[in-house]
Predict the structure.
Amino acid sequence: MERGETRTLYRCDSNGVLLSVVTEGDLRRLLLQGQDLNSLVSESSTNQCGKSFIFAHIKDTDSVVYELLMKHRIEEIPLLDDDGRLRSLVSRSDYFEKIPLSNPELNGTEVEHISDALASNWIAPVGPYITMFEEKIAAELETDAEKVVAVASGTAAIHLILASLGIGRNDVVLVPTFTFIASAAPIEYCGAIPVFIDCTADTWGICPESLRKAIIFSIDEYGTAPKVLITADIYGGASDYNLVSKICDEYEITIVQDAAEAFGSTYEGTPSGLQGKYAALSFNGNKMITTSGGGAVIAPDTESAKTVRYLATQAKSDQIYYHHERIGFNYRLSNILAALGVAQINSLADRVSRKILIYENYKKICADIGLQVSWMETVPESKNCRWLTVGRLDNYVVYPGQTIRSLNQKGIEFRHVWKPLHMQPVFVNKRLFSVSDNPVSEQIFKSGICFPSNLDITPGMQFRAVSVLSQLLRDVR
């Protein structure tokens, strides 16, 4: 309170039961009366200088909580459970600020690095900040910097990997159906055939049984096994790579890991991005760190990385004149955006911790309120960076579009989970393999929802988001 970080103190016993509330006003009154401030927070002190404090129940609706804040003209109100334990806090400001899904966050050093890049006149897709950014990515992944290639986007990264592997017309590439379209679009760029695989109900990762079915189909239909499996670590979570790798090794299928949403996650203690032969990262606007637009390829060795760099720079050969023996791409990251990445990446560990805390707090609030959510689970011995907090509302009559529009109208940005790619009009004639006649991905799509996961979201905002969602679901029932 002395440092100005809070205007109210809450004293609880060892069980979390709220005993007293001390405000700045209480302190001022005691000072004017010449009383000992220590008595205010001692074991024998009464609530708010002898007055009962104002509180709300954790299951009260957000409108009830708001009315209490306004009626009693208080800045903050504690939320208690049936036993009087302090479960959360809600402030007035939580009601007057929009609650975004996940906005970029600046840590204060970005201007310095970008200004330095501009002053050096390195503004092309080459320069010292690109090298520095690649080195920092490598340090986070505990790999060699020579294997990291910074590129224009996560989509570009996947395209470059497929091109490096020689994927071309009529080659079969397996890919999860439950992911963003960028995981599959590069397959079409190469003229190859995407074959979709269903997900599991717990981790939402690749279903091993569906994977095997797709491989057998490819062998029967095309006379050969697929050349590549693209995995997707959606929302920060991983597939069971031990099982997936075992199946792919059996058929000599190369794994390309789309870790665009999982920078900062781990699989059995190993950083996400090292589970396949190649990996693609994304640093788009709302990812764990951002370069505005950008990505990276993680190659298996330095020679493979050289091939990626070669293709990313229009496949220009090392000649004194412009010489091209292959068709390449203009996919390199600019030095200016790399400078932004250098500034951002220093905050990665802190952001992962905060994202996980947001997820844990949602679990607590939903349990307290009684909102039943089937959360996306994590593979054992692994860490999900929780880029977005996601779950399924299976026990409710959910109309996702209507529900999300209603929430957005209240300034609370929930979002639908990914629409399975086999349901997209652009892929309407492509095959899906599942172990069920009712694909798990379609079930998740019907009831799955992304919770607001902005890094600066407060517990009060989280309570408000869950409370409004819960009320909407009760109204539908």
In short: The CA atoms of residues 151 and 332 lie 4 Å apart. Confidence is low (pLDDT under 50) at residues 1-5, 43-51.
